[in-house]
Design goal:
81% helix; globular; mainly alpha
Length: 267
Amino acid sequence: MGIVIANIIAIYRRELQSYFVSPLAYGIASAFWFLAGLFFVMILFGPDGILVTVSAYDLQGQQFAPKIDVPYEFSRAFLDRMGWLMLFILPILSMGLYAEERKRGTLELLATSPVTNWAVAVGKLLGVLTFFLTMILPLMGFEAIALSNSTPPISPTIPLLGHLGLLLLAAAILSLGMFISSLTDSTILSAVLTFAIVILLLFFDLIAKTIPGPIGEAVSHLSLLKHYNTLIQGIFDTSSLILFASYIILGIFLTAQSIDALRFQRQ
C-alpha cells in the first residue's frame, strides 16, 4: 500500500510541475481569471447586476420592494457562471493528460512500467485538479471579501457547499476528459470529444423530460447540471455527492482499462 501511495505522489508531483512550466496552462489560467473576473463584476455592478437591482427597488419604496437575499443570490449566480465557464476550460486542461504522452512516445513506457495504471490515473487527476484549485483560489478570496461585507452575514454552509460542488464537478469532468485523452494522440480531438460528452451529461435533465416514466427519472438523475445546481443552492444532498464520486471513479476506471489494453497490445 505504501508503494502505491508513493507512486501516486510521484506521478502527482510530475503532473503538477508540468502545468506550472507550461505556457498553455498559464494562458488558460489568464483567460479563466479574466472571464471569471468579468462575471464577478457584472453580477455585482452590471446594468442588470444584483446591487443595481436592489438599489432600484429601494428607490421604489420598501412596501413595493421584494425581499432579495443579496449574498445568497450573488453566491449562487457566480457559481452558476463558473460552472458554465468550466465547460470550456476543463476539456482544454484535460486534453493533454495522456494524449501528450502518446505523442511523445512515453505512454508505452508508462504502460509497461511497474507503476499500476490506477496509480498513474489517480496521480494525473490529482495533479490537474490541484492546478485547477490554484486557479479558483484567488476568486474565492474575492468572494470572501464581497460576502464578508453583507448584513446580515450569509451562512458559511451555502458558499462551502457551492464550492464543494464546483470542485466535484471539475473532478468529474477532468476524470472523463482524462479517459478521452488516453484514447487518442490528438489533443484537439480529445478536447472536442470531452466537450461533447460533458454537454450531453449536463443536459441529461432536459433529455429526460422527453422520456416518460421511471426511465426518464433515471436519466434525469445522471445529469451533472441538476446535481451541481442542488449544491450551489446550499442544499446538502448525498445523492449528488454519490453521483459525482461515481463519475470520478468511472473516469479513473476507464482510463486504467484503456492503458491496460495498450499494455496488452504491446505484449
